[in-house]
Amino acid sequence: MAFRDVNARRHIGLQQLSTLASTGRTFLGPMKSHKFIVDEITNQSTLICSAVRLIESLDLTSAVGQLLNETIQAQNKEFKTGMSTLLFLVGAWSNAVVECLQQNIPVPAIVSVMSEGLNSCCGRVQCLQIPIHDVKKELCSSRVRPKALESKTGQVGRHDLKNSWNLLCFQTDISATEEVIPINSCSHQGHDCNFNKFLVSPLAGFGSVASVVKAVGDKSSPTLSGSGVTAPSCIAQKLTHSRHFSTLGKSPFASQQGNFQGHLSGPAADLCGLGRLAVALSHGNQTSVKLLQSIAAYQQGRAECSGSSQVNLAEIVTCSVLGLPESYSCVSPGFVTLVSPEQATVIKHFADKPLRILLVDGDLTEEYRHLGFNRPPNVRTILEHPNPQGGGAGDAWPSRMSDVLMSFEVNLVLVKGNVCKNFMERCLASRILVIGCVARAVLCAFGSATGAQAVTYLSQLNTSCIGNRAWAELWKTGDGRAVDLGERLPARISAGGIPLLTAVLTTALPSKAQLLEDQFWTLLYRLHHALKDGKVFPGGGAVELLCLSHIQALAEQPERPGNAKELPSPWLAGCKSIVLQALASGWKRYLCVLLCNTATVSSELEAGAAVDHHLQKAAACGSPSAYILEEFRRGGVLRGGSEPFPGRVTDLKVCDNVVAKTEAWRRALDLVLLVLQTDAEIITGPRRNQILNSPVSSEFMFL
Amino acid sequence: MSRLEAKKPPLFTSKPLTRDAVSQSLSLLSGVLKSSYGPAGRLKQLHNGVGGCVCATSQSSALLGHLSVSQPVLRVLTASVRNHVSRFSDCGLFTAILCCGFIENFRSLNVAPFTVIQISKHLLSLCMDHLKSEACGCRVSVDFSSLETLVCLVRSILTSKPACMLNKTEVDHLTSLVLKAFVFTVPCHVETNAVLGKCVVIPVKGRRVVDSAVLPGLLIEVPEIQLGKPLPVKRTGSNVIKIALFSVSMSGDGSNPEEGTIVVHHGVSLEVSELNQLLSMGQQLVKDEVGLVLCQKVMHPSLKQYLKENGVVAVDRAGLSLMEPLRRVTGSQPIASIHSLSPGCYGSLKDLCIESFASKHFLHLIPEDTVICSLILCNRSETAWDELKRVCETAEHVLQLTVKEPLALLGGGCTETHLASYIRHKSSSLPASTFKDLGCSQTQYQLVADGFCRSLETVARSLSHDGEEVLTDMVYGHCWLVPSEIGRKLRRKPCSSGQRSGEMSPPLCDGEDPAVLGASPRVLAGREVPGARPCSAAAPGGTHRELCPSGCARHQDLSPVSCLPQGKCSGEVLARKTKSSSD
To answer: Segment Disordered: which positions (chain B) (predicted)?
Structure first.
């Protein structure tokens, strides 16, 4: 067992932390720079754009690296957002703490003052929280007219009205947002027009499509116009476009459609707010917003009675389709997955037939046994009467099993694990579609929608295990085209009333697939948590600015003399002030880097000056929180002075999750304080000789 | 026949404690332990150096569990400390530091080991008698009719390990949960042989500490797919749910770990026959109106399916640690065979429902009357959760031990300092007959007693990690940690009020002649020590005020360091320690 003193000179652990964290600087803020991670041995590279992926690809064998990884992963698992903030603050605070140590401030003083300071900040920023209800109302206020229109419409002719409503929305949104989000390259333009067309066209007749496109085209200034597209249009398009939802004659799905459509017109205001909330939380990510609006609309339609306004994460899966432009991304009800051409042939044969479905929650191979089954090692099988005709045993199992499936007239098998290749081929030959590696959530959704009961072995099969009325088709893009990408084709499997939604993420760049998926989940989790918390923070540095001003006020506050419980001596009061300044410096660095990354200032020095300027203004105002809220209402807290229309109330507001943000702060500080309080590293296990021979052996002691 | 290599000749080492290697390892070990001690103790990162998980801790159980010690002498020491921890959960570091102190102090004395043992046994008995006497100033009686002392006791245990990463609100929340859990484990109907129950810790990692909760009864985690939305549960005629609890594996693999080979004819499947056996037992269970089947190990999916179809809830993989609580909650006898079922082995439950915490789903077993409860424990990171779990278990255990003997000792180094000053005082006034009985001279006795006291004071001094000075009141034996800046100032300037004619000094400073130090008791003058470290900054535990007996009211102004009540076990601690050092 080896033992190393961490505190030999300066605190090695904190230095390691700060070095590791410095790599994630460019991920702060909405304008993230991508990074290539190159493996020097294999020369393979990946494109990343988030702290989680970065930490995953770093070499983290050191103890501090492990702890950092653990912290980032925990935040990711819970919130899927705030990891970049966490990583950055870990770095900033560990630097600040090292400076405190150099001024001889005792460790317990740093720990207690910092953690109480953060606590006090978390309490202080509560006044900035905006209830979700208000966000929706405020963001929707410009929508009064269309809403009134909508509420007056009857069943007849709703489509036409909706159409005009959509048009209206489009125009107002574009005019509202155009000067706020300038686009850097003109190449996006064609893309976005295309997208708009795709979204609106299903509802409109040909004439109006032209008009919409024209409307967009007329705005010759380049815009990212998607932000204002409302959820109803997306969803209605989806439904009217699906052949299962469009023909009312199809009994199993007709009621579903009626239900759904009937709901859509009702809480239009709410949906519009939710869509706007998603935009505010998206921090500029357009594609995911549209997907999210569809999801929110669909799930709200389902949850109309239950009254829960939450996004159910368990009922959403993603499917990446490579080879299509990103504008084809959309949300499809049911389960979309990639299948082989042979499987696709079987799907084509199904046509519109309702399918009998079986769910298997293990592998479908001969050798597979449930977890916890130990093969007895001491069994020997003897064969008394050899049978010369008996073929290979490997052949027998697939045929026996496919016979079982046929006898129960199963058409579709979803398997959680792997599927034996021979068995798969045999099933395809008898037109049974078998799909492997299906997520548990998907099995659950099909179980509840079709009444199927998951089994582990096919020998368990009885009629009650099998579900009915599933169906399969090849997935088509929004404009009705089937996709043929060669080896793997997207297919859609669904069932009446299934709660499951698949976000189909299309991209032409394979290296971006992971990135898009991450972004989608991040935004989905943000919306989920915003609804769960019931409130959001104003974004764009508002909260950090208030923390900064609060901490500075605390640091300057003279000690109350009468309070014996507080630190009494001037020396300790001085300590407190230094430590609080260190805490504040983390947020200040955060704001500066945020400003630099968004390219509103040219240097970090200038950013620092801008932050100081805002701090002074906030202090001069008397109530910093009121000042910050007012600035936020005007369109952003840390705006530079060089805006085109200063003072004009703009429509674009950025919001952040409340709990995710404060938890990220807390986790970052906890990690820094944990490392700060560590004075030794103990390496266990039998690596004595290895350490003895290593160049750092002099740092170790042995027990 | 294989040839056996001759053994190496035995190697004898006389006086192993004096060897360099031993003393180096010992001082390293005692350094590791001392630096971890107390609420401001430093953490150690334990890991295997090749990317395994990292454990940041200052707990003796985790530290000593991971250390591989090569010196036999140290192995004896660590083994006895771990043994102590396994019995009392608490005071591991205290034991270990004291133990190292004894070895270090006694080793250098020029006194025969046997004499040292005799004298230290006598000193120990002096300590024990004093701690047991009513007059003992560092003893606090725990009043179970009020929460005050109990809260203080739990709080000081929770705050003693900084790696839990708790803030004040979280400490308060957990303190109340731990106490609630403790109250759940006390039986309502007291019989002659009352047995305390158990609090089972359910892990929910990645959540905020304030999301933790306590529930009576038992929670078992179940994967979602097993359960339909409304829980179909079958009740017997008397409206209870009948339970069968299996400790045997029901996976259908016929686990035969015995030696030998089973020969099977081709075409005969052991698996099928085993499964049939399971299914026929399933039929029996259904016939007996069992509503819930619990299995410690794995259940065959076919059996689960059969039970589910017949309205029986089946849960497997409960795990060994839950078996005893399950047995107590349901009152059932664990069934160890799948071949026979006796009707007497079933237990019963009042109700069964599903609880969800975070993304986990639990089956909540609600009995009629129980002493078992579940503490759903949350903490943000894995490392901090592990530490917190050990701390909460310690707190539960200490509370249970306190029921047996409702006494606590003052913490913050006060007890040790008090005992040391008591021994110093007492040993100078012993009758000559005592020395004769022990077979030693008075000088020898003084030497050993001094080593003994210094070992005790070492423990108190180990609480200081940031160069704070330890100030001691030699009359009452209380001690304070003050920041070094203030300590220096105090030493330079003689005390302001001379009424009590004393000088203020940090008596536990290294380098002072211990004999001189012990000779004349010094009184802490003045009523206030400016800058004595407040509890909020350094040791957020219970304050002295809360635990100080009314006899020393003057300490209330001084707000010394936190008290770390050591439960009842301290007597045992001393006993163990002396033994392992002198044996």
So the answer is: 493-513
The verdict on B176 and B190 lying in the same domain is yes
3-state secondary structure of B355: strand
B357, B390, B405 - which closes a domain: B405
The CATH number that applies at residue B172 is: 3.30.260.10
Least confident among A257-261, A274-278, A503-507, A652-656? A257-261
Interface of B with A in 244-303 (CB under 8 A): 249, 251-256, 259-266, 270, 297-298, 300-302
Contacts of B316 in chain A (CB under 8 A): 372
**B contacts of A369 (beta carbons < 8 Å):** 253
Segments forming the whole domain that contains residue B43: 18-137+410-582
Classify residue B238: in a domain, yes or no. Answer: yes
Tell whether B49 is covered by a domain.
yes
Q: Is B360 on the interface with A (CB under 8 A)?
A: no
Number of folded domains that form chain B: 3
Q: Is residue B573 in a domain?
A: yes
A10-43 b/e (C-beta count within 10 Å ≥ 16 → b): ebbbbbbbbebbeebbbbbbeebeebeeeeeeee
Look at residue A168 and tell me whether its pLDDT is greater than 60: no
Confidence of residue A580 (pLDDT cuts 50, 70, 90): very high
Q: Which residue has the tokens 């308060």?
A: B172
CA-nearest residue to B24 within chain A is A703
Give me the percent of chain B exceeding a pLDDT of 70.
79
How many CB pairs lie under 8 A apart between chains A and B? Answer: 243
Q: pLDDT for B437-460, tens place per residue?
A: 999 999 999 999 999 999 999 999
Kindly state the average pLDDT of the residues B232-246: 86
Q: Contact A673/B165, CB-based, under 8 Å?
A: yes
pLDDT in tens, B124-160: 999 999 999 988 888 889 999 989 999 999 999 999 9
Query: Mind listing the pLDDT tens digit for each residue in B185-219?
Result: 998 887 777 889 999 999 999 899 999 999 999 99
Query: Which ranges constitute the DSSP H helices of A178-282?
Result: 187-200, 206-218, 231-241, 243-246, 251-265, 268-282
CA angle A399/A404/A407 to nearest 5° reads 120
Residues B511 and B491 in one domain: yes
Q: Is B567 a residue whose pLDDT tops 80?
A: no
B54 touches chain A (CB under 8 A): yes
Is B91 found in the same domain as B51? yes
Q: Do A112 and B381 touch (CB under 8 A)?
A: no
Question: What ipTM does the predicted assembly reach?
Answer: 0.83
User: Per the domain annotation, does B132 fall within a domain?
Assistant: yes
Residue of B47, B68, B388 to mutate for A, most A C-beta atoms under 10 A? B47
Spatial separation of the C-alpha atoms in residues B10 and A541, rounded to whole Å: 73
| Together in a domain, B334 and B250 | yes
Neighbours of B254 (CB within 10 A): 18
* Domain harbouring B454, CATH code: 1.10.560.10
Do B181 and B241 sit in the same domain of this protein? no
Are both B479 and B429 inside the same structural domain?
Answer: yes
Q: Which two tokens stand for residue A71?
A: 């912290």
For residues B398 and B334, membership in a common domain is answered with no
Of B369 and B61, more confident: B61
Judged by CB atoms closer than 8 Å, whether chains meet at B302 and A680 is answered as no
Domain match, B531 and B577 both: yes
B534 in A contact zone (CB under 8 Å)? yes
Domains of chain A: 2-129+540-683 (1.10.560.10), 133-314+510-537 (no CATH), 335-371+395-499 (3.50.7.10)
Using the beta-carbon criterion (under 8 Å), do B249 and A372 form an inter-chain contact?
Answer: yes
Would you tell me how many other CB atoms lie within 10 Å of the CB of residue A553? 13
pLDDT band at A623 (very low <50, low <70, confident <90, very high): confident
Mutate to test the interface with A, among B225, B307, B465, B527 (most CBs of A within 10 A): B225
